[in-house]
Amino acid sequence: MELRVFDKTVQPLGAIDELASLLWHTKYFDVGTCRLLVDDVTKTDRRALLNVNKMATISDIVAPTREYLRASGADELTVESGCVIAVGGAGIFKTAETKLTAANLDTGAAFAVGSDYYVYICDSRVDAQDEKYIISLNSTYPSGWNASNSRKIGGFHYGRCRKVDSNLQPLNGSSVIFGTGWESAVSNGIVPRSVWTLGHRPKCSPEGMVYLGGGTWVDIYLNSDDGAKGLKSEYGCAPMTGTESMNWYNFVERLAKSGKRLPNYAEFCAYAFGSPAGLDNANTNAWSATSNTGRGVTGSVVNAVSSVGVVDAVGRVWEWLDELITRAEHATNADYHASVAWGWDKKSPLNTGEKSYDVGNIYQYYAYSLAALIAGGSWYDGANCGARAVNCNNYPWNVNTNIGARGACDLVRTLQAQSSTEYWQGLRKG
User: Fold this and answer.
1) What is the tens place of the pLDDT at every residue in 85-120?
2) 199, 242, 191: which is closest to 218 by C-alpha?
3) Which of 253, 251, 249 is closest to 240 using CA atoms?
4) Which of 147, 158, 206, 255 has minimal Cβ neighbours within 10 Å of its Cβ?
């Protein structure tokens, strides 16, 4: 028998094959379990070398599942049992299954639509008292607590939720798939796929995002300016477009600043699924009426939500996608390209948009050969707006007032929230 040692990235550091050389003592009951010893303040008991002070400094949460928080109702969150969580410098708690509601808010009595909430486990430092769960709008620590006696363990977005079955198929009020009136089967609540934990979250900041599946998170809302040269997913904001001099390149740059990327067409179709199509004469199901004169603000149309909880995937503004094509036909613009032939443009079109500086030139067959896909439809496209709507006619340097963007990000890959059983089984297989 040997003890294998790994770093935080699961890279092997070595192995200990002489168990007698170990200074700590373990006792196994079942696969993946061990005895936790009490703190010996005298530091004379060899079994207590692994003490609560040391354990309280760990960064990982040991849990039976990465998704140890889940939406269990429109206004209810459930903490899974069996999670071992360190808080501050001394407290270690093992969770029991616990229901959290608005009663757990640090301030206020109800959740607000369009808000991001954080879930904390708090330690009163009274030995006889159990852990306390607090839900807060504060991203640092809840009101009445501090960084030393609280720990953020996850969060969620409270917003619009479409009624769906277990396969994400939209339902009407009578639970019929795409049944009459399914478009309006929308209610306010904890967006189920927005619930994140320290082990189940995007690599970027998780606020205003939902888990699409396949290791991808996407922004709930069309992106607006975060005030720091990045982008944010926020309810009730005007989405950034060419109105702010943004083109495809600028969105790529700003999303990178925020730790995100543009989605591709396949991802768009997945997160837009379940969004009702636009209408020519009304904004009932999407911001799409042909009489509209502007983009409006995110989330203003109640029915404009997809099966996974993405808002305004249809209508409002087109969304730039991370896919470029060469157009079959070529526009004629002698000012930029002298003839129908491969060559450098006479003057570079690439330095348009939010930033104007030398960024090189484009070698193409004729003017505007390169195009970037956009999807969803804009505020005046009416019934042409939809969950698979796509436009293949826009070159990436185009600065257009009706084209915006939405960020995507990969799932974080860490050992956080890995169950002890999974960990030891992995060692045995290795």
Assistant:
1) 888 766 788 899 999 999 999 999 999 999 999 999
2) 191
3) 251
4) 147
Contacts of 78 (CB under 8 A, 6+ apart): 69, 70, 71, 72, 97, 98, 99, 100
Fold of 3-157+413-429: Tail fiber receptor-binding protein (2.80.20)
User: How far apart, in Å, are the Cα atoms of 65 and each of 6, 189, 332, 408?
Assistant: 21, 23, 58, 24
Strand partners for 211: 217
Q: Give the DSSP H/E element, type plus range, for residue 4.
A: strand 3-6
Residue 283 in contact with residue 386, Cβ under 8 Å?
no
Bridge partners of residue 325, in order along the sequence: 371
Domain layout of the chain by residue ranges = 3-157+413-429, 205-411
Distance CA 372, CA 231 (A): 20
Pair of tokens at residue 153: 């363990």
**Reduced 3-state DSSP string for 97-112:** CEEECHHHECCCCCCC
Alpha-carbon distance values, 283 to 16, 298, 312, 319, 361 (Å): 67, 13, 12, 19, 42
Q: Alpha helix locations (H) across 156-313?
A: 248-257, 265-272
Instruction: Provide the pairing of β-strand 403-404 with 318-326.
Output: parallel
Query: Does 14 score more than 70 pLDDT?
Result: no
The Cβ of residue 409 has, within 10 Å, a number of other Cβ atoms equal to 23
At a CB cut-off of 8 Å and minimum separation 6, what does 248 contact? 320, 372, 396, 397, 398
Give the model confidence (pLDDT) of 337-390 as tens digits: 877 788 899 888 999 898 778 899 999 888 888 999 999 999 999 999 999 999
* Strands annotated E in 80-149: 84-87, 91-94, 98-100, 115-122, 132-136
Contacts of 78-81 with C-beta under 8 Å, sequence gap 24+, read 79/119, 79/133
At which residue do the structure tokens 């974080």 appear? 412
